[in-house]
UniProtKB/TrEMBL annotation:
Residues 4-123 form the Response regulatory domain. The modification 4-aspartylphosphate is found at residue 56. GO terms for biological process: phosphorelay signal transduction system. PROSITE patterns: RESPONSE_REGULATORY. Keywords: Phosphoprotein, Two-component regulatory system. InterPro entries: Bact_response_regulator, CheY-like_superfamily, Sig_transdc_resp-reg_receiver. It comes from Syntrophotalea acetylenivorans. PANTHER family: PROTEIN PILG, STRESS RESPONSE REGULATOR PROTEIN 1. The keyword Chloroplast does not apply. This is Two-component system response regulator. It comes from the Bacteria.
Length: 123
């Protein structure tokens, strides 16, 4: 069975940029799923199994930090690694994400090499 990734970002354009960067980085996923916010991601994860999640922090409805909190309470998805992709440069918000189980972070703008380096060790 091939690997699946879930990209969570409220920007359709950013989801497409991440998708293109994954391919440019040589990370070959069989399925790339998308969600526009944390709640939509939880809805996707109720019916799908993924190998890794890439999530923005600042989103409407449910942001990336609340998504991490909710994810921790669900035994089915709590062990899926999450990498935060964000413009947030503040150490406080990234520390909070790590304390809630984020496996890493990538700052926007990013290169395919940065994605490959961060995700390579998690897959």
């Amino acid at each position: 069975m091939g690997k699946k990734v879930l990209i969570i970002d409220d920007s359709n354009t950013m989801r497409k940029i991440v998708t293109r960067s994954l391919r440019q980085a040589g990370l070959d996923f069989d399925a790339i799923l998308e969600a526009g916010d944390g709640q939509a991601a939880l809805d996707v994860l109720a019916g799908e199994t993924v190998d890794i999640i890439l999530s923005d922090i600042n989103m409407p409805v449910m942001d990336g930090i609340e998504f991490l909190r909710q994810k921790q309470t669900d035994d089915k998805i709590k062990d899926i690694p999450v990498v935060m992709i964000t413009t947030e440069a503040g150490a406080d918000i990234l520390d909070e994400a790590r304390s809630l189980g984020a496996a890493g972070s990538i700052k926007k703008p990013f290169t395919p090499d940065q994605i490959q380096e961060t995700l390579g060790s998690l897959l």
